[in-house]
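Database export, one record per block. Field names are fixed; values are copied verbatim from the stored entry.
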Amino acid sequence: MYILPDLPLSKKSKKVFSLLIQALLSVKKPIIRELARILLSPNYSSPQALVNRIRRFLHNHKWNFIDVQLNLAGFIIKRLKSSHPFVFFLSDFTYITNKWRILSFAVPIGGRALPILLILVRFDSFSKLRWKSEVDLIIHAISLLLPILPKGTVFVFDREFTYPELMKFLMKNGMYFIIRLKRNVYVNGKPLWKLGSGVYENVLVHKVIANVFVRGYISEGGKEDFYAYVSNLPANMLS
């Protein structure tokens, strides 16, 4: 069974890769010999024969990590589109050491966030001009996803992602965004925190005309915080 037909691999390699994925979902110890024992079929005379094939597969392929992720993403999104009117993407930076962080894009499925695209970035990537800026990296990552995304995909970001360039890029490409706002932002020249709860249509925020949804101060888990969002979704969908 070839569960990933679009991967740039030979027929035999696809089969081995599919077997590995199936085995990893059920094996207790992810070691090659244990994988081979679970996967042993009439095509292989012994676990050692399958061990040798798995080793050749892992050693002979020079993986393009991004291409593999995008193929997997296409596989997942095709199935999401068939049962969901909108595809949502949750985006964030995760800090893993004092030198590295990960830009991640995930889709919410069954109450969990399933990672679709991960890009590992050094903190000095911007100072060394690999990327012009953080927003340049984010737009580059979304550009990689665009060929497999349906129009109207919704990107959800936290407060550090309120880049005018990002919002304009998503609107230009037929995508939606929902971005949480900091309380000190100005909306049509007025402080956001002074606005009452509700939806404000076609207002100027971060140099972009969009809709703003203000929830106000909300207590959760004993802590009070301010919640407001900017979005290009239709106003009647913001609540």
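Remark 1: The mean pLDDT is 81.
Remark 2: The chain is about 30% helix and 30% strand.
End of record.
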